[in-house]
Amino acid sequence: MDTLDLARWQFAITTVYHFFFVPVTISLVAITAGLQTAWYRTGKDKYLRLTKFYGKLFLINIAMGVVTGLVQEFQFGMNWSDYSRFVGDVFGAPLALEGLLAFFLESTFIGLWIFGWDRLPKKVHLACIWMVVLGTQLSAYFILAANSWMQNPVGFRYNAERGRAELTDIWAVLTNKVVLVTYPHTIFAAFMVGGAFVAGVAIWHLVRRPGVDTGAFRTALRLGAVIVIAAGAGVAISGDQQGKVMTEVQPMKMAAAEALYESEKPASFSILTVGTLDGSRELYSVKVPYLLSFLATGHFQGEVQGINPLQQSYEKLYGPGSYKPNIPLTYWTFRLMIGVGMTSAALAVLLLWATRRGRAPNRLLVWLALPLPLLPLFANVFGWVFTETGRQPWLVFGLLPTSAGVSPGTTSGEVLTSLIGFTVLYGVLAIVETKLMFRTIRGGLAGTSPEPDQPDQPDAAGKPLSFAY
Amino acid sequence: MELTTVWFVVIAGLWIGYFVLEGFDFGVGILVRVLGRDEPERRAVITTIGPVWDGNEVWLIVAGAMTFAAFPEWYATLFSGFYLPLFAILVALILRGVAIEYRGKRDDLQWRSRMDWLITIGSVLPAVLWGLVFANLVRGVPLDASHEFVGTVGSLFNPFALLGAATVTVLFVAHGAIFLALKTTGDLRRRANRLASWCGLAAAVLAVGFLGWTQGIRGDAASAVVASGAAVALLAGLLANRRGREGWAFVGTAAAVALAVTSLFLALFPLVTPSSLDPAWSLTTVNAASTAYTLKLLTVIAAIFTPLVMLYQGWTYWVFRKRVTVS
């Protein structure tokens, strides 16, 4: 493999791995903040114990999210230096905003939250975790704005002399119509992950250790299920809007998502298509008529452009070459994203129904719910693989081909070294993280005193916190 | 002042902030197993940086992001040119971050001991490598006409850069030891204080050699004055440490780190990455910079939010100002 392929593999591996922790973190911190608020408002002990329990799981996750996120920023310069030279003027601005507005907020207030239990007044301590929530939201927005610019570049002019894109309108970048639909879609999807996680952990406890903290875990189970369902609805609505924007700005991606080779009017949505190995001809398919037209354009009779006519028009526009992404990959990740996501929402409905009016969940339900925390997580990953590979062969759509972004001076040996290094490291960390998560989950709710120590007590200052180290 | 100069100052400021802040938590990390003799002591050592190390590390991320935005050419050359050292720094920072967060999550002595080793390694490596990278940056690296790094990893290991690596590492250890002396009590505090004196002296000797040599390679009156200021601040800090005035001692080492880094950036200016092949191929604040629009935008953002960040980070230090006792 050459430097380009290795750099692409490294980006895929490190980004997908990083993204296992991102949705959990985004949603779990908000859920933890919600639980702590419930404790603050009601004074009920179960909310405090749930806050500490899910808060600890959140901390295990964010530790991984933070350290693997470091790689993302450095990687642009290390493996994609020509990309950095080309886009830095535009792409750097949302990245700088993310660092200055979001990362400092998150990291500082997490420290205050972890170590501040005994040292800050209750209200201030609660505000700290909400600051972390704000930080994660800002971070998500800015990084999605940067990514959306790569999908649909706006607010810039091309400087031929310098061979780079130059920012002319930051507001256009921050209100790119792609980010306006991608942000809610991503956040709702993240909440499906967090809700499923909270519910999955709770049901495991309810069944494995009946009678222990039943009240608290019932609350958590039903709260998690409601979050999955509500967020699922949000994902569906925002996803529908996103489909229309995508059809408009990246028609090839929509065509590839459907493996639609020739333009159709009206176009039908394929539930399942089995094609030839090269993906150029279909052998068998199940289709819903008119649906794709509606998804893509908002009208049942709308025309959806196919891959072949798009390829021809792109050749006219950008010169000879293939402008098709990997079609089987986009087709299947698109379907899996929707299918797996919908399955998890259905499971959540089932859980809520089965536990109505004080009913206890049974073992069968546990077996059904066991994969629940993983389903939306994988739907998230499929969604990202779809949207990123669907942009190919472009790094910045219509402006910079992926092959032109790679670092020219970097050797394949260097990239291979870091590719192997990160992959092995990430593999080991995955085992450590998973074991620690299971340990913490098995440990259950810690017994907490109804009232934590009062702040500014002389001995409180000196003692290292059991919650942290 | 030219906007490009303003941004050179901002980037330098972010690196200074990073080295002053993460400098002491690297030092503390290196000393976990040296000064902490048993589990409660090591736990106390790590607790001194517990609430702040993550926030300190963000200075690096923001320095990177700001360089990307304000000087894309510099960012591209720096990060692709120093590929393998940066890869090693990333691995070290990942291991360190995970180890700090996870050490207390299991009640198991062997687990904690392993995590302490990772913290030590994860703190030594970045200190050494940042020294190596910055020394090479000041010295100049082989850049071709298109500002592309054309050297090898081997070319980064030269006597000057190795001296830089040693200086930065020992300086961080002294800085960390003084922070520990400031934040702990009893026996631990005494040991930290004593170690700080010895490391501080070694750091002073190394720093005089390294900063002096830097003046020989490139530098002007301003960077020479600031470099001397760094030496004075370090010695004053050590004197305060001898007298048990650890707060002032910490101000001294912090100022020494800040002034030393400042003198390096002053020596560099107006270059950002000198080419060792042909001075005309060097990257400068002007040819590496973004457009005036982007720089103006970044200036407004930085002017509003940097003071805010410093305010709430400062508040964190205030909240956790008390000493940590071993229990």
From TrEMBL, chain B:
Top-rank taxon, per record: Bacteria
Compartment annotation: Cell membrane
UniProt GO molecular function: electron transfer activity; metal ion binding; oxidoreductase activity, acting on diphenols and related substances as donors, oxygen as acceptor
TM region positions: 6-32, 74-95, 116-137, 157-183, 195-215, 221-240, 247-272, 292-312
Keywords from the UniProt entry: Cell membrane, Electron transport, Heme, Iron, Membrane, Metal-binding, Transmembrane, Transmembrane helix, Transport
Pfam family, one: Cyt_bd_oxida_II
Record InterPro entries: Cyt-d_oxidase_su2 (IPR003317)
Membrane-topology descriptor: Multi-pass membrane protein
Name of the protein described by the UniProt record: Cytochrome d ubiquinol oxidase subunit II
Family label: Belongs to the cytochrome ubiquinol oxidase subunit 2 family.
A cellular-component GO term for this protein: plasma membrane
Major location category of this protein: membrane
GO annotation (BP), single: aerobic electron transport chain
Organism for this UniProt entry: Kribbella voronezhensis
